Amino acid sequence: MTVYFIGAGPGAADLITVRGARILAASPVCLYAGSLVPVELLAECPKDARLIDTANLDIDRITEELVRAHAEGHDVARLHSGDPSVFSAVNEQMKRLDEAGVPYEVVPGVPAFAAAAAALNRELTVPTVGQTVILTRVAQRATAMPEGEDLATLGRSGALIVLHLAARYVDRVVDELLPHYGGDCPTAVVAMASRPDEIILRGTLDSIAGQVKAAGVIRTAVIMVGRTLGAEQFRDSHLYSPERDRHVC
Q1: Which of 3, 38, 89, 212 could form a disulfide with 104, with the two C-beta atoms 3.0–4.6 Å apart?
Q2: By three-state DSSP, how is residue 204 classified?
Q3: Cα–Cα distance, 235 to 44 (Å, whole number)
Q4: How many degrees, rounded to 5, is the angle at CA 232 between CA 182 and CA 166?
Q5: E-only strand ranges, 192-241
Q6: Burial class (CB in 10 A: 0-12, 13-18, 19+), 69
Q7: CA separation for the pair 48, 215 (Å, rounded)
């Protein structure tokens, strides 16, 4: 039997992948983070499925449930918000399953930053303006950032920065990025991306902190800072250029 780590997407129930939904519908056991995964997704589970909310479980309890289901011969759908590849706490679960000899598979999902870009109607990479996107977070009480990954260092690149789990620290974000991006740099915050209560804030580094506080946004949000967010004058992509020789591989 297999444990499937499934990216449930950023919030909207219909943003789970077809593969994820198919596995969910066939799994007798489902573990999900009740505070983050849309409850509508649970309707896809088999009627007699064992549903386990992991919001108040520690890693050992979660592992026990996964190993137990495997021992009983059940496939397990382990739902994670967004995509398992970033900020999902999947690594520690996979490590423990390796130690227990339990097989698993990862099913990708729509990440929060992609849903936020869609809400903004923006491509995050723009020819001649910016071709690099940095996904990161800020140091908190829980986990310190590795050396060299602080915002002041990353900001020197001038690349578009996407910050997860940082809305409550927006003042610090602004202070650390201002020297590198300038107060007029386009900045956006998208909270609850793709959900009915989605909040979209657009501004600059100078104005965004005030907007975030006025809107009461403190969690489930991404902050985006970079010139591509406001790019209007840019060169067309070479991909569809009429000057491109389409006979050359």
Answers
A1: 3
A2: strand
A3: 45
A4: 45
A5: 199-204, 221-225
A6: buried
A7: 41
β-strand pairing of 160-164 with 221-225: antiparallel
Residue pair 138/173 in contact by the 8 Å Cβ criterion? yes
List Cβ neighbours of 109 (8 Å cut-off, separation of 6 or more): 6, 7, 8, 9, 15, 16, 17, 20, 80, 82, 83, 84
Query: Helix axis angle, 170-181 relative to 208-215, nearest 10°?
Result: 160
Residue 52 tokens, joined: 């386990």
Q: Residues 77, 109: contact at Cβ < 8 Å?
A: no
* Full pLDDT tens readout for the chain, 249 residues: 899 999 999 999 999 999 999 999 999 999 998 888 888 999 999 999 999 999 999 999 999 999 999 999 999 999 999 999 999 999 999 999 999 999 999 999 999 999 999 999 999 999 889 999 999 998 776 678 888 999 999 999 999 999 998 999 999 999 999 999 999 999 999 999 999 999 999 999 999 999 999 999 998 999 999 999 998 876 666 666 666 665 665
| Helix (H/G/I), strand (E/B), else coil: 225 | strand
- What does the alpha-carbon distance between residue 28 and residue 244 come to, in Å, rounded to a whole number? 52
At residue 135, φ and ψ (nearest 5 deg) are: -100, 125
In the block, tokens 């997860």 appear at 164
Whether 48 contacts 3, CB under 8 Å: no
- The pTM score is 0.89
